[in-house]
Amino acid sequence: xxxxxxxxxxxxxxxxxxxxxxxxxxxxxxxxxxxxxxxxxxxxxxxxxxxxxxxxxxxxxxxxxxxxxxxxxxxxxxxxxxxxxxxxxxxxxxxxxxxxxxxxxxxxxxxxxxxxxxxxxxxxxxxxxxxxxxxxxxxxxxxxxxxxxxxxxxxxxxxxxxxxxxxxxxxxxxxxxxxxxxxxxxxxxxxxxxxxxxxxxxxxxxxxxxxxxxxxxxxxxxxxxxxxxxxxxxxxxxxxxxxxxxxxxxxxxxxxxxxx
Length: 260
Ligand SMILES: Nc1ncnc2c1ncn2[C@@H]1O[C@H](COP(=O)(O)OP(=O)(O)OP(=O)(O)O)[C@@H](O)[C@H]1O
Fold this sequence. Notes:
The protein is an alpha/beta fold. It has helices at 44-51, 74-80, 96-102, 116-128, 144-158, 174-185, 199-205, 227-230, 233-240; strands at 6-15, 18-28, 33-37, 59-64, 67-68, 81-84, 162-166, 191-195, 208-213, 221-226, 244-249, 252-257.
């Protein structure tokens, strides 16, 4: 088994007075795709931001490639992990190609110049995300789904060993959700951690899951492991407070909420 790329040790994450994650010991390896699952407000985004190095943990540590995240400088960090947030705020009228090229900036030479290879990689990424035809368009004019696919293209262009995505399929229509899943499933040389609301998408494109479970009193527990161990109907019912039925259609397993 290869060494963990991302590891947390006794990780604690808080938001205000709330403890969202407590004592999390967890490891992510290259080739694995983890779904972060749990109800609204359980802490998926806050945990992802802590893993990305965008907020300090309240306790414990995050390690990337065996090094404490806090000791990795910003520029190097940008070559090690890509962060694809849930919301995109575009302040300037950059073209779509310029936005994706910005993801190549960590690899720029001393003068900050990008080369023809960077442009080729950016264009390839746009093509893989079905937005090459928008390359010259002002990023502020895109639809929600188009903007999301441009963000995925930027993530591909950044070419980092670790990819962290917050609800990457939000805003996408069903064919593009499936295409995004297929794309992420091809990233065999990278590790992927993504928050998702759709358990069935997780079943389709992930190998592992980290599932929020309520704890009667005190901090919640996050259950980590291979998908088929974690995504059990009983666990999902505890997490979401709603009974789930497992069905098999054309050889694929799906979960549907039971009628109340
Ligand atoms: N500074 C803060 N002070 C108090 N509470 C906060 C603060 N920041 C975030 N929270 C709360 O922390 C909780 C976790 O938020 P987070 O965005 O991580 O949840 P999430 O699981 O990603 O939710 P969703 O599925 O709705 O996107 C929320 O209840 C949020 O209101």
